[in-house]
Design a protein that fits this description.
The chain is of the alpha/beta class. Helix content is 40%, strand content 18%. The protein is built from 24 helices and 22 strands. The strands form 4 sheets. A 7-stranded mixed beta sheet has the order 6-7-4-3-2-5-8. It is globular, with a radius of gyration of 30 Å.
């Protein structure tokens, strides 16, 4: 299809006109012929054939099956019940599910009698299921076959009111294929198409809109998803290559006395193999002459801070200063205290700069930074202020980087004439698929090993009815000299939700653990900073045995003597939050425990979250489950990244395709970094269009 035809405004397509075009633009972002072509059906009606259960494929189409109901049961759920039928044919079993009208349905269904069912299948727990199927007894079934599978397009109320029905969509797309003559430049290299047995572009597009069979639909979707993800990965990889070529970095060629002295004489413990590997990766970057831009992922307690400190020592050995920026004062202070203690005997000047730093102190810090006396500055957003000027900033470390905006991070770059090397750290494990899409242009290091001697935290799920046993367990732990966190999800009582709120919880804990035998701290977001610090300080010093808190303690509190974490109404928390909270204990040598308290009524998602927490302490596995439950948008706010405005691929469901696409994009760039070879001309052209348009889907021609 002529590329210019795809850029034609949608107003000119037969059957649209200016009024409908305006609605299409506002409602679904369809501006051009190309936008319409890439506005894919979200399901398909297929009454052309009957499927055996064993032939069903995991794609979003509707199918027709003949079989019998052999068993009916009612299943309790969080709100109400659902009716589930086991439906079988001679190739397998699937489930039919009803969430409403169950009494009438149960009375009218016939067991062991042949039915024709029609509906949309989904794959869950190793079985296909079909909610609210259309059903008819085989003997009553009147065959009313259609000539092909019918696409069903996403719609809105306004589109329906404007008469832009599904039939109108179908007709318009057919018109597009007629006008374009069904000819497309294929944007993928021929060798990749052959190696992966991909459908040609024209055939894939046609079968995504008007599939001739289930098999062709699956092949068409695979081809288009691969292409979309291939170009996203290509963009990210090229961005990384360009940055390494264009953005010169300060070469840290020396491994000098600071690094060696610390490594040989002051390292408080043996580094894990994962830490050694990551330090090697960072050293290689720092010595390359290109600017480092690396993401360091490591679970809570995996030892990222030591890696960060050793990177700082490399900067100092090469005559540069460094800074470490954290999102909260608590976390910045913790980094400052920990690092100051580690470098006591190395003659290194370290200062802390936060919103609470007094003016006189600030002036001293500013002066020492500019004359080079200050080697390492640790702080919060205060580091970004205009007044903060370094003599020679060579390394900027950003902790919990997802809490800082892109613009804020960019301000650190401008603190030297060449951008400093950047190391961003996160204790929130990011699933590999998401990391490859969101941070595909960064080099990624992972610390996937906990320091030796760390005991795994024992995690259990207990119902409210077991509360007295839990209280007895808390008493035993306190008598052993340990401390306990009790975390609540709400600060004030909510009339609509029957959950424990913090103040109510505090009172019941105070009754159960009375003074003077027990001392209790309380911490929540509505307290003044000074009061928070006072309460936290009492707990850190061991003056109080129990800390009743909200999720304020999620990040940055380090109390090695705290060995028990009780999470009230645990079903109210997301998985990553539960995992972060659990990471507040298990920091000392004693066995630690995490107890997840809930009521008896739990949704399926809540059960999955709790079972995952009890089963594993692996942050990356937890992040994968979280991604499946919540989707990428919720997990990372991915829409802000711009690059993930996907039309057909789904980075959760299609992670295997994503890995394949990245592999091939890497292969292409390894063989031909400038995309100069004849076979890659089409890739170069498509990539240039993509960059020009800044929209992943405007490149198709």
């Amino acid at each position: 299809m002529n590329p210019s035809l795809l850029h034609t405004p949608i107003d000119y397509l037969k059957g649209i006109g200016p009024n409908r075009a305006e609605i299409l633009r506002k409602e679904i972002g369809v501006h051009t012929y190309g936008d319409l072509l890439n506005f894919f059906p979200n399901r398909y009606l297929d009454k052309t054939r009957f499927y055996k259960i064993g032939q069903l494929e995991r794609n979003s189409s509707e199918v027709q099956v003949v079989g019998k109901i052999v068993h009916l049961r009612t299943v309790e759920q969080k709100k109400g019940k659902r009716l589930v039928a086991d439906f079988v044919d001679d190739t397998g079993k699937m489930e039919l599910v009803w969430f409403r009208g169950q009494k009438w349905i149960r009375e009218n269904l016939k067991l062991n009698t042949p039915y024709v069912i029609f509906g949309k299948t989904s794959w869950y727990n190793g079985l296909f299921s079909m909610p609210h199927p259309e059903m008819e007894l085989v003997e009553d079934y009147k065959k009313n076959l259609r000539t092909a599978m019918q696409p069903v397009y996403p719609s809105t109320e306004r589109l329906g009111k404007a008469g832009i029905t599904n039939r109108v969509f179908s007709r318009c797309v057919q018109q597009l294929f007629l006008e374009g003559g069904n000819k497309f430049i294929d944007p993928l290299p021929q060798d990749i198409i052959e190696e992966l047995h991909l459908l040609p572009k024209a055939e894939a597009l046609f079968n995504a809109h008007f599939p001739k069979s289930q098999e062709l639909l699956s092949k068409a979707q695979f081809r288009l998803k691969f292409e979309e993800l291939f170009y996203i990965q290509l963009q990210l990889l090229i961005k990384n290559l360009i940055r390494k070529k264009k953005i010169k970095g300060f070469p840290f060629e020396e491994v000098g006395s600071h690094f060696s002295e610390f490594y040989e004489n002051h390292l408080p413990f043996e580094l894990t193999n994962a830490q050694k590997r990551v330090i090697r990766e960072i050293r290689k970057d720092l010595g390359s002459g290109a600017q480092m831009n690396r993401l360091l992922q490591g679970d809570v307690g995996s030892g990222k801070t030591i890696v960060a400190l050793m990177s700082v020592l490399l900067a100092l050995d090469n005559g540069f200063q460094a800074c470490l920026m954290a999102p909260t004062e608590i976390l910045a202070t913790q980094h400052f205290n920990g690092i100051s203690e580690l470098v006591t005997n190395l003659g290194i000047s370290v200062k802390l700069l936060t919103g609470s730093t007094k003016t006189s102190e600030r002036k001293e810090i500013h002066a020492a930074l500019e004359n080079g006396e200050l080697h390492l500055l640790i702080g919060t957003h205060a580091l970004l202020e205009e007044k903060v000027k370094f003599q020679n900033l060579g390394l900027a470390i950003i902790d919990e980087q997802h809490r800082f905006g892109v613009a804020q991070r960019a301000r650190l770059w401008k603190k030297n004439h060449l951008p400093p090397h950047v190391l961003v750290m996160t204790a929130t494990p990011i699933p590999r698929t998401l990391a490859m899409s969101l941070y595909g242009d960064l080099d990624i290091s992972v610390i996937d090993e906990l320091p030796p001697g760390r005991k795994e935290i024992k995690t259990v799920h207990r119902y409210d009815s077991n509360r007295l046993k839990v209280f007895a367990f808390i008493r035993d732990e306190i008598r052993k000299g340990r401390q306990v966190y009790i975390v609540y999800p709400l600060i004030q009582e909510s009339e609509t939700m029957d959950y424990k709120d913090l103040m109510d919880g505090y009172e019941s804990i105070a009754r159960e653990f009375p003074m003077p035998e027990f001392q209790i701290s309380i911490l929540h977001g509505q307290m003044k900073p000074a009061d928070k610090d006072y309460e936290m300080d009492r707990f850190v010093k061991g003056e109080t045995q129990i800390m009743v808190a909200t999720t304020v303690i999620e990040v940055g509190v380090n109390v090695p003597n705290a060995s028990v974490m009780i999470i009230e109404s645990a079903e109210r928390f997301g998985l990553s939050q539960l995992h972060q909270l659990r990471g507040r204990v298990g920091r000392g040598a004693e066995q630690s425990f995490c107890i997840l308290m809930t009521g008896h009524k739990l949704s399926n998602d809540s059960k999955t979250r709790l079972e995952t927490m009890v089963r594993t302490a692996d942050g990356f596995e937890i992040a994968e489950v979280d991604l499946k439950l919540r989707g990428p948008g919720d997990l990372m706010g991915t829409q802000q990244s711009g690059v993930l405005n996907l039309k057909i691929a789904d980075i959760v469901k299609d992670n295997d395709i994503l890995k394949t696409a990245r592999h091939y994009a890497l292969q292409v760039l390894k063989e031909d970094p400038g995309l100069e070879q004849e076979k890659n001309k089409v890739v170069k052209y498509t990539y240039s269009q993509l960059v020009k348009e800044k929209n992943i889907w405007n490149y198709i021609s």
